[in-house]
Amino acid sequence: MKSYNLGQGEFVVLQRSDVILVSDEGRDPLDEVVLTNKNLILVATVHEGAFRSSRYLKRLPLEQAVDDMGVLRTAVTKVDNSYVLNVAFADETVSLCFAGGSAGAARRWERAVSSAAVGDLDGIDADSEASDTLGDLLEETRGAFGVLFGGAGQTRKNAEPPQRPMTVTKRCVGCHAPIVGRKGSVVTCSYCDTKQTL
Question: What pLDDT does residue 168 have?
Answer without folding.
Answer: 75
